């Protein structure tokens, strides 16, 4: 799989980890050279050992999550509308970690296709004890330019699919208890507005309502439901926003931790929430934003 060469000029676009290349590897900056947090052993994070469905697992945060779960020994099904990506990530999981992994080509907004994808995953990987809804879209439209199409597409992928995936997977998740868990990938936009993406902001805030409601409904069945709210993460979704080194440096300077996130920063938190280490955490949202939403401009 192709990698991106580092940019050479100061204002050129900075390379983003591409494909199934591990995050951090080609992103060194002065700030990144400070001692990194030590990686903790993965033995506890692989419990339970049931399979996990990762939507949007072909790229970005979903891809990093699939790899981190495979690292901990959990079988993973990468569900993505771009099948080639899903297959590449599944291959990387199998080759690097020796875990079971499959790619499934699916548009998660097609509710009628979900039961079949669950059956395919169940047949290939065994009991399914986890769901990560990382598939998402963002369309730049402020409220005065919003169209029905943009609103519907954004809500369909980011919010309606989360609900319908949960419904479709609930019987499998109950079968896999104890230890079943769901993580929705929301956003800091659930708390702080970005006026250019009104539908996105609404969908991500809606996901937090769904998190609480699903946690309430499914808790008695032994299924935990939580959300993560990432800040600025370097992925395909943010390629346009992070157009140059200067832009990235400016954004980083506004973040208490002084750097934008890599997908892996979010993936390890999702893996924790899916694991028995988080056995008493449900109905909650966890910001993974370097401190952005806890501060105000100074
Ligand atoms: N990147 C960020 O800065 C950031 C910040 C906060 C929240 N998020 C959220 O994190 C999630 C992942 O974002 P990312 O940056 O990794 O995005 P990305 O664009 O890099 O990857 C998204 C993946 O989802 C897949 N996908 C999109 N629509 C789909 C559909 N209908 N069916 C199946 N697959 C579909 C895409 O093919 C792609 O592989 C999204 O929900 C996004 O809103 C991202």
Mean pLDDT: 89
**β-strand amount:** 5-15%
Helix content: 25-40%
Count up the domains: 1
Low-confidence segments, ≥5 residues, pLDDT <50?
A: 1-13, 23-35
Second CATH tier, the architecture: 3-Layer(aba) Sandwich
Main attributes of the structure:
alpha/beta, 7 strands, seven-stranded parallel sheet, 37% helix, single chain, binds nicotinamide-adenine-dinucleotide, Rossmann fold
Overview of the structural elements:
The protein is of the alpha/beta class and about 300 residues long. The protein has a single domain, classed as Rossmann fold (3-Layer(aba) Sandwich), CATH 3.40.50. It has 7 helices and 7 strands. The protein has helices at about 60-70, 85-95, 115-125, 150-175, 200-220, 245-255, 265-275; strands spanning about 50-55, 75-80, 100-105, 130-135, 180-185, 225-230, 285-290. Strands 3-2-1-4-5-6-7 form a 7-stranded parallel sheet, with helices on both faces. Helix 1 packs across helix 7. It is globular. The relative contact order is 0.15. The chain binds nicotinamide-adenine-dinucleotide.
Quick recap of the structure?
This protein is an alpha/beta fold. It has helices at 60-71, 83-97, 114-125, 148-176, 198-218, 245-253, 263-274; strands spanning 51-55, 76-80, 101-105, 128-133, 180-185, 223-230, 285-288.
How does the SSE layout of this entry go?
Blueprint: E1 51-55, H1 60-71, E2 76-80, H2 83-97, E3 101-105, H3 114-125, E4 128-133, H4 148-176, E5 180-185, H5 198-218, E6 223-230, H6 245-253, H7 263-274, E7 285-288
The structure holds nicotinamide-adenine-dinucleotide (NAD).
């Amino acid at each position: 799989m192709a990698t991106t060469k580092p940019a050479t000029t100061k204002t050129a676009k900075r390379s983003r980890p591409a494909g199934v290349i591990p995050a951090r590897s080609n992103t060194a900056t002065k700030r990144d050279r400070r001692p990194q947090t030590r990686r903790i052993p993965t033995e506890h994070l692989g419990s339970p050992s049931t399979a996990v469905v990762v939507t949007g697992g072909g790229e970005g945060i979903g891809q990093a999550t699939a790899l981190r779960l495979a690292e901990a020994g959990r079988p993973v099904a990468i569900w993505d509308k771009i099948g080639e990506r899903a297959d590449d990530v599944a291959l990387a999981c199998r080759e690097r970690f020796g875990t079971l992994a499959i790619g499934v080509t699916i548009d998660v907004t097609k509710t009628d296709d979900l039961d079949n994808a669950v059956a395919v995953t169940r047949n290939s990987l065994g009991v399914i004890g986890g769901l990560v809804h990382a598939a998402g879209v963002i369309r730049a439209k402020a409220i005065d330019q919003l169209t029905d199409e943009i609103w519907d597409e954004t809500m369909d992928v980011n919010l309606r699919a989360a609900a319908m995936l949960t419904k479709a997977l609930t019987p499998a998740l109950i079968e896999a208890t104890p230890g079943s868990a769901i993580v929705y990938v929301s956003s800091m936009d659930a708390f702080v507005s970005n006026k250019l993406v009104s539908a996105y902001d609404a969908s991500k805030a809606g996901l937090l309502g769904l998190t609480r409601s699903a946690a309430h409904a499914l808790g008695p069945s032994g299924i935990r439901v939580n959300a993560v709210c990432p800040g600025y993460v370097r992925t395909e979704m943010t390629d346009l926003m992070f157009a140059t080194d200067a832009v990235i440096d400016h954004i980083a300077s506004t973040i208490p931790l002084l750097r934008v996130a890599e997908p892996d920063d979010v993936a390890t938190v999702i893996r924790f929430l899916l694991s028995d280490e988080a056995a008493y955490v449900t109905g909650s949202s966890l910001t993974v934003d370097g401190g952005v939403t806890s501060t105000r401009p100074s």
